[in-house]
Amino acid sequence: MLQCIFLLSDSGEVMLEKQLTGHRVDRSICSWYWDHAISQGDQQLAPVIASPTHYLFQIVREGITFLACTQVEMPPLMGIEFLCRVADVLSDYLGGLNEDVVKDNFVIVYDLLDEMIDNGFPLTTEPNILREMITPPNIVSKVLSVVTGNSSNVSDTLPGATASCVPWRTTDRKYTNNEVYVDLVEEMDAIINREGILVKCEIYGEVQVNSQLSGLPDLTLSFVNPNILDDVRFHPCVRFRPWESHQILSFVPPDGQFKLMSYRVKKLKAAPIYVKPQLTSDSGTCRLSVLVGVRNDPGKIIDSVTVKFQLPPCVLSADLTSNCGTVNILTNKSCTWSIGRIPKDKAPSMSGTLVLEAGLEHLHVLPTFQVAFRIMGIALSGLQIDKLDLKNLPNRPYKGFRALTRAGQFEVRS
Amino acid sequence: MAGIRLHVIAPLVLVAVGKCARDPSVYVRKCAASALPKLYDLRIEDNNSSIEEVVGILLNDNSPGVVGAAAAAFASVCPDNFSLIGKSYRRLCEILPDVEEWGQIVLIGILLRYVIAKHGLAKESVMSFLHHTETPHVGEDDPTTNFMKEETIGMMDTANSELTHMICRSYIEGPDEYLSRSSYINKGSNTLDSARYTSSKSNDDVKLLLQGTSPLLWSYNSAVVIAAAGVHWIMAPVENVKRIVKPLLFVLRSSHATRYVVLYNIQVFAKAMPSLFAPYYEDFFISSSDTYQIRSLKLDILSSIAMDSSVSAILREFQDYIRDPDRRFAADTVSAIGLCAQRLPAMAETCLDGLLALSRQEIFSSEFGSVDEESRVLTQIIMSIKSIVKHNPLRHEKVIIQLFRKLDSIKVPAARAMVIWMLGEYNTLGGIIPKMLTTILKYLAWCFKSEALEAKLQILPAIVKVLYNAKGDDHLTVRKVVNYVFDLAECDISYDVRDRARLLKKTLEYNSGPRILETENSIPAEKDLQHAVLEHLFGGNLKPVSPEPPNSRFYLPGSLSQIVLHAAPGYEPLPKPCSLLQDDLDQISNDIRGMDLNEMNDSNTSSGSLDEETASDYSSQNSISGSSNNSDSYENGSVSEDNGNNEPLIEISEVGIAPRNENVDPQSSLAVGELMSKTALESWLDEHPGLANKDQSDSNRVRRTSARISIGDIASRVKPKVYTLLDPANGNGLKVDYSFSSEVSSISPLLVCVEVLFKNCSAEVVPEITLVDEDSNSQRDSADQLVVGSESTVPSLSEVPHLVPLEEVTSLEPGQAIKRTIQVRFHHHLLPLKLALLSNGKRIPVKLRPDIGYFVKPLHMSIEVFLDKESHLPGMFEYIRRCNFCDHLVELNKDKSQGAIEKDKFLVICESIALKMLSNANLFLVSTDMPVDSKLDDAKGLCLRFSCKILSSSVPCLISVTVEEGKCSEPLNLSVKVNCEETVFGLNLLNRVVNFLAEAP
């Protein structure tokens, strides 16, 4: 059972404290935590820390530390997962997370926490339902609250879903145009090692659905080639049985945007893009050149290509130029080369020299290049949606499909 | 409302929650469930059993949402009360996928515990599989055979199986008790040795759990995935365990924090069963965004799952990591290479070559020496080489030689020291090394001055070791070198080096006298001793850089303790396998027992409905019997003065075989009470065939029965509970006990009489003992203290003192006991009163705990009045609770064993219930009714009525105890009903009554 939740700003200030049980947790635990964090230096803290008095779970999102304390045994993932949900919901409500926005919306944050956790046990974490219980802040409501002096955001009526058998959906939704959009969003994780061999290449994909349907619809989604999926995870709304038997997704969708399922496709043979770094060092300087190009043309335009890398600490200065796009070097020695769209006629390349520390002849550590790209309109895994059937609907809805692939952890070692 | 942490309103809240638990709205029931832990948290012991009752109701709920919250409540209120789970186990398994995610986590844990407790471990699971295949003759719970088993497994290699075994044990017993191993009952070994394929395949319960949890492996919530994986890990057959692998690896693609925790768990799985994760080594390749902790975990996993097929890929990966800018990580990689090589001896050559090549590079880079982290990598390289070489020094002779050759270029002191240690250790190895020795020693002696402290410390023992083994010409050279080094060392800056040099020199001198004359082999014992001494002295030097000992503490997968590596408060290992069997016989209803005997043909639903049917049958019977009862008692009550009226009833019972109706109604009014009861009993006894002992037993019984009503006789039969006020250990040998007396205070109705028994357990006389109220002494003014001091003052009702003290006990001889009565006014009927015991000038604070059973006084009334009053107090003034009662069993057994005349079982039951009630509360027994149509052995419908009124407010309070269910010779299920206008008081009284009734005699 969680006993207390703290939100710390990036300077260690306790922004918010929420006691959950009768056993009060003293704030001094935060200062202990902060001292501990400082003593660990720049290195990141473990997510589970055993302090002298409490066990702490911590996650850091956008500079805000979410800290939960407990004194008794509990599944640590429950704590961590809950904190992640809180962070997600907060950033969803407040339109991003930072110190100011949390401070501006204390009331909402407390309201949300009140609903999300009760006596240290998570209560309602479904964002759609929370949205119904507590209205998200907007200008109108702010003006209203200033004018009327009524600062409560909590709606008086209990959301209908809490009582229904489908806790993620309200029963009485009405839309004039019924629409449902299914997006395949894929991220490609790849590791290319020093020799230029593709060591690992896999796709992590999500089926995102945006449903605006009236009533209580029942949807069935099937794939052309479900057997390529290596592993799957489902939103609670998905029924397990049809998937086990026919690999069909049958579900009653929540309202609005949600992640229906995520999947993984492993052992892909090729990446759509190649990045070839070359480093040759000689007597205190190092020559760096990076070539980028399209390998297996997916048939769609590859855009938003960027190559990021961290220069090793022994590099004193760097002078890099490219024939395409811009190169940025920050003071913390992180380099970003943003190419954008790969031109048809020439292969983009970046080259330059790195000056090494005095006394160092050769570069003995090598940077890793992180590549980002985006391809619209295609799912690189090859997964294809067969059809989407809808039941329990008064009129024919509009159905839309999209696909998108972008780079996840796409790494090229040099 | 439950969140208001006020003890006073807790009973009210409990009633509200109990009502909400039956509310038609799902949300209300869910909220009721989540309110229970809060109530429990208030730690009012009286409430606990009723909270558990509500938990049981909610666990039986049909709505998944409610079950989830109820599971959470169960886990925090009564995690060991498996009988609650047993009732609805199957339904819980079926409903599991629909429960909300947070509830799933808890529920999975509960179900796992239940299955283990009930059926023990699964036979084909990882936990016991390896174990079984290797030792077909399974020893049972004998610790010695276990020991043997473990050793044989250890011999038969597969360190994994030993590890699994250890993990398994740790799960069950908790690592702290692991060494003091207690009985270990495997499910399979319990039944049959050869029947290996029972449990998880044939046992429906286990199968159901596995079925229920396997879809959860696809959950979005990583905590659910881990919990489900844990179940499979422990219970699933070996061939199915691989199901957990992919989901676990998938979870790795979530947030950093989650990844860290999951990796921690995978680490354990991978160590115990490397084959599980071996094909998926790619997933543990490190990406640049991983934090340091995650990297080291991944490295550890990689090195433990490396197989012959995958090791080359992994090593290639490692080579990349060594060039990583994070040098600490590079050092870890090097040590992981070392581990790989040790695990797979075939790869040792390759690893060593790679490491040597690396060391050459690193030497280059470390030449400018400024980078601290580079030296760490180098040290790690040498250490890995050392640990690989240690396994087979002969084979790797060349490697050692290469290292010696490079000694010149290794600059990092720690690494250098290690090479020098190897020099000493392997100086006799092979053919080439001894030839090199003199040169190396000369070199060492030459650069001794410029060495770092660490290396110097290693040089000294190393050269001594060499000296011992040197032969012929070499010996002289070595001796010279050694003397030279000692001379140098004695002038060293560091006192440590000087000291060691002197010590070694002395031991050498002592040794070398005879040594020069004789051959060196002649004193092996001494030499050994020397070596032992040397090892002891300098072995410690290596410790700081030696790798951490492997983690040998295992906790349940997914638990907090597994992450922090110590048992967090509240961590419970799995219950002992099959520990529930005993309880089953007593507690769990028949259908469960049926399942236990593997007669599980009937599905849960049918058995459940069957149960309900029978229950409804019972209740209908109940109502019938109850009504007939009532009418009878009316009849009886109205003409109770007529003795003759009882006769026909008895005749009926004599004629009828099974049905009988007793109306032991000993005290319709106090005046005729004694006489009445006597006659009633006499007449009742008439039906006994054996009348020989009639007179004796009769008188006996009459006296006993009258003990229920006459206060004077209470000591003989009704024994009020004695509580300890002061322990002899705390009170300098003075022991003070107290018990509540049924007397009513003459001073004020607010006062409760308490008998205090002082006993001197020490050898000395204890003078001047008195009890005073602590609060009043500190708070009130002197005038009030006077009141307290002088007994004679008559306090007004508004100013009733908290304590009317006893006369001072002037002195208490050793062994003497003295009894006094004090009258106390408690602030509240639940909170203890703080008193101070003054003895011999000392002040000892003590706490007097109130017993709500004595906040009432007997209220005499007839059965008609009782029923009338009862009908006026319906609805919210009426509270019912159930409990089990087994006092009468003792009595019955006693009778049986003594072979005395067989008393009627009904009478025994009545007696024991009444006795229990009267010994624990100050009540008046109004009537005792028996059902007319009950069977011979069925005590159902038996009803006792008590009445009393509250001391402070004189509000009457009615208690009826009815036997709901149960045979005479088995524990009875009683329902206790309290009708009282004072809601809170009534509830507390009810709780108290239920608690003492359920207490073991």
The number of helices of chain B is 44
Order of helices and strands of chain A: EEHEEEHHHEEHHEEEEHEEEEEEEEEEEE
CATH class of the largest domain in chain A: Alpha Beta
Which class of secondary structure composition applies to the elements of chain A? Answer: alpha+beta
Topology:
The complex is a heterodimer of chains A (414) and B (1001).
Chain A: E1 4-8, E2 14-19, H1 28-39, E3 48-50, E4 55-61, E5 64-70, H2 76-94, H3 99-104, H4 106-116, E6 117-118, E7 121-122, H5 127-133, H6 139-148, E8 179-192, E9 198-212, E10 218-223, E11 231-234, H7 240-246, E12 248-251, E13 256-265, E14 273-282, E15 285-294, E16 302-310, E17 315-322, E18 326-329, E19 334-340, E20 349-356, E21 368-376, E22 385-391, E23 398-413
Parallel strand pairs in A: 8-23
Antiparallel strand pairs in A: 1-2, 1-5, 3-4, 4-5, 6-7, 8-9, 9-13, 10-12, 10-22, 11-13, 14-15, 15-20, 16-19, 16-21, 17-20, 18-19, 21-23
Chain B: H1 10-20, H2 26-41, H3 45-59, H4 64-77, H5 82-95, H6 101-119, H7 126-134, H8 143-155, H9 159-173, H10 175-178, H11 187-191, H12 199-202, H13 204-213, H14 222-235, H15 238-241, H16 245-251, H17 256-272, H18 274-277, H19 292-305, H20 311-322, H21 327-343, H22 348-366, H23 372-391, H24 397-405, H25 413-425, H26 433-447, H27 453-469, H28 472-490, H29 495-517, H30 524-539, H31 560-564, H32 580-586, H33 590-596, H34 604-638, H35 646-655, H36 670-685, H37 694-709, H38 714-717, E1 723-726, E2 734-744, E3 752-760, E4 766-773, H39 774-779, H40 782-789, E5 803-804, E6 809-812, E7 817-824, E8 833-839, E9 842-848, E10 856-858, H41 863-872, E11 878-885, H42 887-898, H43 905-920, E12 924-929, E13 943-950, E14 956-965, E15 972-980, H44 983-998
Antiparallel strand pairs in B: 1-2, 2-3, 3-7, 4-6, 4-8, 5-7, 8-9, 10-13, 11-15, 12-13, 13-14, 14-15
Helix pairs in contact in B: 1-2, 1-3, 2-3, 2-4, 3-4, 3-44, 4-6, 5-6, 5-13, 6-13, 6-14, 7-9, 13-14, 14-16, 17-19, 19-21, 20-21, 21-22, 21-23, 22-23, 23-25, 25-27, 26-28, 27-28, 27-29, 27-30, 28-29, 36-37, 42-43
